[in-house]
Each structure stands twice: as C-alpha cells, then as structure tokens.
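F.,

This is the one I mentioned.
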C-alpha cells in the first residue's frame, strides 16, 4: 500500500477513501500514531499552507478536515487501547456571539489527532461556561474561537475567569 495516498486524499478532501486507506494501513500493521503524525496531520498542515497562500478557502479546509476525521474515526478505538496517557486535556469552545464553529471543530480534530483528550463544547459558550468546564474536568488547556473583531471584547472576560 502507498501510505502517501492517505496524505493526498486528505488534502483532496476525499473522506471515504481516507477511511478505507487508514483501514488498510491498520490491517498492514502500520502503527496508528505513525498514520496520524506522518500522514494525517501533515496533510492538514498542507491544507493550512494552501489556505494561507489563498489557494484554498474555508470550504476546502472543512472538507479536508472531514477527510482527516474519517481517518481518525477508524483509529480512535486503537488509540484508546494503545495509550493510557494522553498529551493533555483540553476544553475547546466557540465564544458566544460567533456565527459558526468551524474553527473550533478544526482545532479539536487536530488536537485529538495529536493525542489530546478533552471536552468540545456544543453551541456558543459564555466565559462562565468555559471556566466551569475547565474546573470540572481539571483541564490544563483551553481554547476559544470566535471572529477576530470579537476577540478584543471577549478575550479579557474569558481569561479573567480562568485566571
């Protein structure tokens, strides 16, 4: 099997093929962490690079993220068996006032692929909800996504609450 195809199919956003290729890799005893760190994450890095260059736009990023998620879905049960420790715990949310949660979902998938476990909030989060989520689960890291112009007004409130 040509493992490079996983990378190429993630960049192309071909979720069904990525899932099949990851299953083939697992059947051929390719370690899950190798699939993630050598093919899936680098593919999303390439997608991000193309976005920065103006070659990809948000829809292409979302489709590629869905392809990566198809691979991670195959690997998730194996990763749970493989590792008792995690890279860390994370709370990721979308700030109240944002109109979509694309950024939160992309970041959550990347962190999950890198071995982090955590809580992905549903809907829009008020600062108090993020703080409570962090305290309840003793999460060490947190992230909140929102429109750039909203950050100035909201970040202070989120950061004060997490102190």
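My design for it:
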């Amino acid at each position: 099997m040509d493992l490079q195809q996983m990378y190429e199919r993630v960049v192309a956003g071909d979720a069904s093929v990525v899932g099949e290729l990851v299953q083939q890799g697992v059947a051929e005893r390719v370690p899950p962490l190798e699939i993630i760190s050598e093919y899936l994450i680098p593919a999303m890095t390439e997608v991000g690079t193309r976005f920065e260059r103006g070659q990809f736009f948000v829809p292409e990023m979302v489709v590629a993220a869905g392809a990566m998620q198809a691979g991670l879905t195959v690997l998730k049960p194996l990763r749970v068996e493989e590792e008792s420790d995690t890279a860390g715990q994370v709370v990721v949310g979308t700030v109240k006032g944002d109109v979509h949660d694309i950024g939160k979902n992309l970041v959550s998938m990347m962190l999950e692929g890198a071995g982090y476990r955590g809580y992905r909030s549903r809907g829009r989060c008020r600062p108090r909800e993020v703080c409570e989520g962090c305290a309840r689960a003793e999460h060490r890291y947190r992230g909140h996504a929102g429109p750039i112009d909203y950050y100035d007004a909201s970040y202070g409130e989120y950061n004060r609450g997490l102190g």
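The chain has seven helices and three strands.

Talk soon.
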